[in-house]
């Protein structure tokens, strides 16, 4: 089989490389010339564990290629996937569908014969139908089937999530589209992955419902953490006690500084806006968005409070800047709120992140980037653990104490052992624990 993947971002690149690994011929297209050149030269523009090897091996074996020429990519393709960005539209929070519609139109203009156009980008309910209209207008002569195949991979674990997903969702209206997608995902049938076959609108909504539900779940445990602090309870045990109930589940019940990333913030906002417009507001999601925004601000206030109420003249070491470990992605990371607030309050900020590439361009002027975690901690009045990279878990509290000037430690991910930090003479605070 042959597939064209439009967009060489996180989703396009990972999906393209994984389909190639399944034995499919994949051509990935991107408009960004430098990205395509880098990929052709074997350089991966993003940090995603295992992706470099997968791309290298499949490119070498001739199953994975990269181009800026969309017409070349879609020639002979059984399916063309749209994996372009759908960021928040400035001002109103709706998903910006301009990249999706532009790419769909480009595909229609370049198509030489019937094909199946599959939306992998996360798009609001009703988008597939709009794409159908565009295709009909641009190429009334051609049979182009539209399908929705939302992607559920997580950054940092993207290849595992793609290769062993909990489910594959296929929304379509023709047997040809279902058949092409079932053939593509055949290796997953063999490992008994559930396939949800449904209509276009339902597939589109499943994606938003899943992301929004996870965002609500995280926000719920974050608010429970606040309650635990007031009530003398331990959020870790509350989450465990809740999560062992099979109806609730243990995953996504880790209290923290608020969710970030390229998807939860923008997708919750887009779902809330679509639901309002359709006259069925999802108020629980609206409240989640507000609570999560407020939480990031509250984390900065918490650090200032721990410094005795004033950050002026104090040095704060921030460990971890990306929105989660094992990625270099900074989109909507809690650090984008916490660090500027501390800097505005007069603190000197020293940071360390194992993947600081994007962070360097996004932090306020004057923020120092150290080469190691202990280097960042050097001379700090307070240490804030903001992203739980594995290498931070192994840090010795004694070494942290020895490197610091002060003794305040705020573990905003509950990644460290409170007792050993207190034994080392540190004033240790975490989230939702005493
Ligand atoms: P991204 O911004 O990393 O990549 C999008 C790529 O598309 C860019 O490289 C851009 O240059 C390219 N592009 C835009 N228009 C194009 C065109 N007309 N032709 C060719 N290339 C074009 O985005 P992403 O993070 O991969 O997300 C893509 C979509 O997948 C979004 O809708 C997102 O919500 C969804 N999604 C993302 C993730 C994730 O973990 N990042 C997971 C699931 C779903
Ligand atoms: C998320 C979803 O998990 C994927 O299924 C989905 O495909 C993707 O969004 C998307 O649509 O793009 P991702 O954003 O890569 O994936 O990362 P997550 O692991 O979900 O983490 C998101 C945020 O929630 C991070 O800031 C993380 O620190 C936070 N989080 C997660 C918590 O605070 N607590 C938790 O228990 C879990």
UniProtKB/TrEMBL annotation:
Sequence ranges assigned to domain UDP-glucose/GDP-mannose dehydrogenase C-terminal in this UniProt record: 317-418
Amino-acid positions noted as binding NAD(+) in the UniProt annotation, renumbered to this chain: 30, 35, 86, 122, 155, 266, 331
Pathway the protein takes part in: Nucleotide-sugar biosynthesis; UDP-alpha-D-glucuronate biosynthesis; UDP-alpha-D-glucuronate from UDP-alpha-D-glucose: step 1/1
GO BP field: polysaccharide biosynthetic process; UDP-glucuronate biosynthetic process
Positions with a binding annotation for substrate: 152-155, 207, 252-256, 260, 324
Enzyme Commission code: 1.1.1.22
Keyword NAD: yes
Positions of the catalytic residues: 263
GO molecular function annotation: NAD binding; UDP-glucose 6-dehydrogenase activity
Xref: InterPro entries: 6-PGluconate_DH-like_C_sf (IPR008927), NAD(P)-bd_dom_sf (IPR036291), UDP-Glc/GDP-Man (IPR017476), UDP-Glc/GDP-Man_DH_C (IPR014027), UDP-Glc/GDP-Man_DH_C_sf (IPR036220), UDP-Glc/GDP-Man_DH_dimer (IPR014026), UDP-Glc/GDP-Man_DH_N (IPR001732), UDPglc_DH_bac (IPR028357)
Keywords (A to Z) from UniProt: NAD, Oxidoreductase
Record's keyword annotation contains Lipid metabolism: no
UniProt xrefs under Gene3D superfamilies: Cytochrome c1, transmembrane anchor, C-terminal (1.20.5.100), NAD(P)-binding Rossmann-like Domain (3.40.50.720)
Enzyme class: oxidoreductase
Catalytic activity field: UDP-alpha-D-glucose + 2 NAD(+) + H2O = UDP-alpha-D-glucuronate + 2 NADH + 3 H(+)
Superkingdom: Bacteria
Record-linked SMART domains: UDPG_MGDP_dh_C (SM00984)
Record family assignment: Belongs to the UDP-glucose/GDP-mannose dehydrogenase family.
This protein's name: UDP-glucose 6-dehydrogenase
């Amino acid at each position: 089989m042959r597939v064209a993947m439009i967009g060489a971002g996180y989703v396009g690149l990972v999906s393209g490389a994984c389909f190639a690994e399944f034995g499919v011929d994949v051509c990935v297209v991107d408009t960004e010339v430098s990205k395509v050149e880098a990929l052709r030269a074997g350089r991966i523009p993003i940090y995603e564990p295992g992706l470099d090897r997968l791309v290298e091996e499949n490119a070498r074996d001739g199953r994975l290629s990269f181009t800026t020429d969309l017409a070349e990519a879609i020639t002979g393709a059984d399916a063309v996937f749209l994996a372009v960005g759908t960021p928040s539209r400035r001002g109103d929070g709706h998903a910006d569908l301009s990249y999706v519609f532009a790419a769909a139109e480009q595909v229609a203009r370049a198509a030489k014969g019937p094909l199946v156009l599959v939306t992998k980008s996360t798009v609001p309910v009703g988008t597939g139908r709009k794409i159908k209209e565009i295709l009909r207008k641009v190429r009334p002569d051609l049979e182009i089937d539209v399908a929705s195949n939302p992607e559920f991979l997580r950054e940092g674990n993207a290849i595992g999530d793609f290769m062993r997903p909990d489910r594959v969702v296929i929304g379509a209206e023709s047997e040809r589209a279902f058949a092409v997608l079932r053939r593509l995902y055949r290796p997953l049938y063999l490992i008994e992955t559930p396939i949800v076959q449904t209509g276009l609108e339902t597939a589109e909504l499943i994606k938003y419902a899943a992301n929004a539900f996870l965002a609500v779940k995280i926000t719920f445990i974050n608010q429970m953490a606040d309650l635990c602090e007031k009530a003398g309870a331990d959020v870790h045990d509350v989450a465990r006690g809740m999560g062992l109930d099979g109806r609730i589940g243990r995953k996504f019940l880790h209290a923290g500084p608020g969710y970030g990333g390229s998807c939860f913030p923008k997708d919750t906002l887009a779902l809330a806006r679509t639901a309002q417009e359709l006259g069925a507001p999802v108020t629980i999601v609206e409240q989640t968005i507000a609570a999560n925004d407020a939480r990031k601000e509250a984390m900065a206030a918490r650090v200032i409070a721990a410094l005795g109420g004033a950050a002026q003249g104090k040095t704060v070491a921030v460990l971890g800047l990306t929105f989660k470990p094992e990625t270099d992605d900074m989109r909507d990371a809690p650090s984008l709120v916490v660090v500027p607030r501390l800097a505005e309050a007069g603190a000197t900020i020293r940071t360390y992140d194992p993947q600081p590439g994007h962070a360097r361009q996004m932090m306020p002027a004057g923020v120092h980037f150290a080469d190691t975690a202990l280097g960042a901690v050097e001379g700090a009045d307070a240490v804030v653990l903001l992203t739980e990279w594995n290498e931070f878990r192994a840090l010795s509290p004694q070494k942290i104490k020895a490197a610091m000037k002060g003794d305040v430690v705020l573990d905003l991910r509950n990644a460290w052992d409170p007792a050993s930090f207190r034994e080392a003479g540190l004033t240790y605070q975490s989230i939702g624990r005493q």
